[in-house]
Amino acid sequence: MIRKLSEFDIQQVAKLHKEELSGFLPELGKEFLNLFYETSTEMPEMFTFVYEEKGSVLGFVSGVTDARGLNKKILLRRPVQFGYILLKYLITHPHKTGIFFRILTYPGFSKGGAELLSVAVAEDFRMRGIGRKLFLKTAEEFKRRSINKFKISVYDRLVANKFYLKMGCSLVTSFDFLGERMNYFEIKI
Ligand SMILES: CC(C)(COP(=O)(O)OP(=O)(O)OC[C@H]1O[C@@H](n2cnc3c(N)ncnc32)[C@H](O)[C@@H]1OP(=O)(O)O)[C@@H](O)C(=O)NCCC(=O)NCCS
Asked: How far is the CA of 80 from the centre of ligand 1 (A)?
């Protein structure tokens, strides 16, 4: 069953995000991700759906209707709580300070527009159509919000590139970010 993220799912979604997704956010840890998803529920431009079976969250997808400045907007909603978690991280990982500030200026979020931010399915439950269902739900939600196209950025090294092509997305551009190649896909709905 696919439904909207509730406060009771947040821990499971944060765990899935940490275990299944690449990038800087998972590195910041579960405490950061819990706060990230909790904060996202207060942002009208963001949505998250979970795929649940018998009380277990097996997958999730999140999207935003306008990605411009998203990281900053989220952090500034709860500056003290995020500040505390980030300070702890930067004190224990001082060599990551430069990366952290570059994340805030992530080029993908400068142009704005609707974006599927993350989709993940628990490893043991992949290739059963759950990812497709979550992707279609995202398209349905954007359409409901009168949006007729959205984009997705994905690391070039991930097999998810094949998934997005299967979903009917087209590769529009590629760019380098923090030393990694990223692809931007787009789909008209
Ligand atoms: C990408 C991901 C969400 C796909 O979820 P899934 O539930 O396995 O996908 P589905 O079973 O719905 O597959 C849908 C289609 O994509 C194809 N596909 C999915 N994973 C694939 C892979 N690794 N390689 C090739 N094709 C793949 C399937 O074959 C299927 O095509 P078909 O219907 O023609 O057979 C999942 O692999 C995942 O969570 N990966 C880790 C997280 C990640 O990288 N997320 C994307 C970055 S935001």
From this structure: 37
Distance CA 116, CA 175 (A): 17
Q: Is the pLDDT of residue 111 over 80?
A: no
Residue 1: pLDDT above 90? yes
Nearest CA to ligand 1 atom 29: 127
165 pLDDT more than 80: yes
User: Domains in the chain, please, with CATH?
Assistant: 2-188 (3.40.630.30)
Ligand 1 mean position to 77 CA, how many Å?
33
Q: What is the mean pLDDT of residues 4-12?
A: 96
Calculate ∠ Cα 86-90-94, nearest 5°: 165
By alpha-carbon position, which residue is closest to atom 1 of ligand 1?
Answer: 160
